[in-house]
């Protein structure tokens, strides 16, 4: 059985991506990060999703507190009610986040003999992050091939992006088709008992459920 490492934030996209790995027949290891994000609600969701699938869940710490992003710490408010989502790079962008996380996922792959990394990046209904585009993943995959023992020995680690070109409604529909426990996921950039419904992630998620014809079971303010 092939083995895969899946980056699991605890959000809608990463949970559906994890389900894709399971559906593809991989022995799947979920990998999550504590990197200084504003809240740990998404990590609680990641744990719940991993437990739902009864799989190994690795949570590792990275200190990104020195990075400039409204997602880190509480020094800057999260932008709300934006009307130009995806047209520019917002304050929630975390510099080099996917580079760092994919690098750690690569190391884990080599350590557990996995040959693929699944990441729930999306370049259709997204906030405009530059490290969520296909060209980035192609270049990073080539770097893995050149800079790892697995790559040098002819066993290159692949980056799999199953939802990269899907709309948010298509992601919701795929999640429903694969019986993903979407009610366990958390996409809001803010913490709290209920999602804010106004940050980029909430707006994209709510529109996705609406367009897919489903009710989001997550509670909103």
Binned, the helix content reads: 25-40%
Principal-axis shape equals: globular
CATH class group: Alpha Beta
Note poorly predicted spans: none
What's the total number of strands?
A: 5
What would the average pLDDT be, to the nearest integer? 92
Main pleated-sheet profile: 5 strands, parallel
Task: Please identify, by name, the CATH architecture.
Answer: 3-Layer(aba) Sandwich
Quickly count the domains: 1
Could you tell me how far the N terminus lies from the C terminus, measured between alpha carbons in angstroms?
Answer: 44 Å
The CATH fourth-level homologous superfamily: HUPs
Rg estimate, integer Å? 17 Å
The number of helical elements comes to: 7
Content-based structural category: alpha/beta
CATH topology: Rossmann fold
SSE order, one letter for each helix or strand: EHEHEHEHHEHH
- Strand fraction band? 5-15%
Strand order of the largest sheet: 3-2-1-4-5
Structural notes for this entry:
A 5-stranded parallel β-sheet has the order 3-2-1-4-5, with helices on both faces. The longest helix has 16 residues, at 97-112. The protein has one domain: Rossmann fold. Helix 1 (12-23) packs across helix 6 (168-177) and helix 6 (168-177) crosses helix 7 (200-212). Strand 1, helix 1 and strand 2 (27-34) form a beta-alpha-beta unit. By secondary structure, the chain is an alpha/beta fold. Helices cover 37% and strands 11% of the residues. The mean pLDDT is 92.
